[in-house]
User: What shape does this take?
Amino acid sequence: MIKIPKDRPLHVLSIGTKILMKDVMDQYLRSLGEVKTFYASKMSTAVEAFKEKKPNIIFCEQTVPEGSALEFIQQIGGLELSGDYYFVLATEQASEGLVTLAVEKSMDEVLVKPFSIDHIHQIVERYFEKRSMEKEDWVTDLRTAKQSYMEKRFQEAEELYVAAAKKYPSNSSVAIECADFLLQRKYPQHAQTMLEKILSEAPMNVRAIHLLGSSLKRQGKFREAVEKFTTANDYSPLNTLRRMELAETYLMMAEDQIQTALKAEDENSTLFLSKARFQLVRKDYGALVNYLDAKRAFLSEAGKKDADLLIALAKKLAGIK
Assistant: This one.
């Protein structure tokens, strides 16, 4: 059994209280030696604890107050194989869909209740096995690039990601991290090229399919994006954030259709109000108010009443006086 020395303590963050009970986790972890445990019962404190404590291992329940494991991962900037921490999803019941989700989101493993002290010890052992990957050059290069990005040194991060992709052309892990970065930096066409190459070699890579859907959406190719999101859902149906993005894509597609219709009928009161309703759904409150004010002269009397209601609601939600 591993014994963790006092001069190099292990930091563990445990998120949630239904499965990861504090007394049990303390007992299991501290039997390994010098382990510092931190606990968060809800999403906001979990993100704060992650940033402050910089844990080596994260145990996170599938759902927690204020959010979920998926939302936590999103708020900390995502997980990747080169990450210097170990992420464990805790759940009351395992399923094939959950395992697929864990692989898609680069989680390290799934812990199912009930679990024993041996399970926790094995997880810690696997964390140390993962740390041995740090000796590989591609891991170090990706970690350096991610650090630059998290510290908002965006130009430097871009150069490092692109350099890594060129240095390791056959490493799909490097390619997908670079594509994800390019997408976040609003270079969807470059990301698309990279993702299509990955999928030509690994057509069932769910994360690549999802990111390709996001890149197509960014480019206004909504129907193609819907196709990719739907395919990703077929392979990994438990990604709730993707379902939200799919719904948003449908809304954007509908709004695009309204915009096209307005080119043909540029004084159509019903179309003006429909566009405003989509702005309300997207929480684009200021744009809604300005848009309806500008189009007020073209509205019917009934349309003006509807517009007044939409404007009043938008101002209330946005705190506009």
